[in-house]
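look at this:
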Amino acid sequence: MSAETWIAVVGSVAAVLTTGAFVPQILRTWRRGGRDLSYGLLVLYLAGVVLWLVYGLLTGARAVILANAAATLMVSTNLFLKWRTETRGTMGARSRRPRIALDMDGVMADTLKKYLQAYNQAFGEHLTLADIEGHELEDAVPPARAAAARALLLAPGFFRDVEVMPGCQEVVRELSQRYEVFVASAAMDVPTSFDDKFAWLREHFPFIPPSHIVFCGDKSVLDVDYLIDDAPRHFPSFRGTPVLFSAPLNAGETRYLRVSGWGDVRRLLLGGETASPSVAGAPLAAVRTT
């Protein structure tokens, strides 16, 4: 084989490899989108292969023409697929309904009321909501009883028959007409509660699909617009708008937007108004939600 033939073979193989290198990337962009690709890289590369194509046409170099025509097609395809997937993603995010995540205990379910009743019955006490203001119940009891008080939550069926918070069912049903509603419970605090909580939600809120029930530990992972919760510990890393549901444990919290019940939630999210941060009992200051 002559030297000229070897040169032609090497050039052809190089052209096939450098051009074909874009095939796996085209398949990846088709399946997963092109977020990992830079528009700058693609545009500069496309400009380069187009200029090489022009050079090949001007000089009559067939190998250069074929290789760079194929490369132009592949880079253009990659660029188009990246633009299409990102445009669809942006349009989908804009067109979806706003999302709300609702805490369960203390917001949808009056768990604290049952907990107080169980504690008072177990220890012959008469604790009231006023007695535990600013504290979790477990922190308000004598240290010697802390473990026993905690054990009340682990009793089989404890979460199964908790009362629904007043007005909750009606307002959540109304919310579901305008928003995508999720239930987000930090059930990892009491892992034995999963079955009871799921059964409770299916009984009282059958219009919330199981796919929208989230048992988690860290609620900052939620991709929602609003999080309504009575525990401010979930808010600092949350990326949406936190809404603090008034409860004895958060009585001294003033950093977040606050609602004092489901009537406030209705006015906030269904009455064409939202609110600025306020303390318990203060009126909701109107600003637009959407």
Remarks:
- Residues 62-95 form the longest helix (34 residues).
- The chain has two domains: 3-93, 99-269.
- Strands lie at 99-102, 180-185, 213-215, 226-229, 241-245, 257-259.
- The domain at 3-93 is CATH 1.20.1280.290 (Monooxygenase).
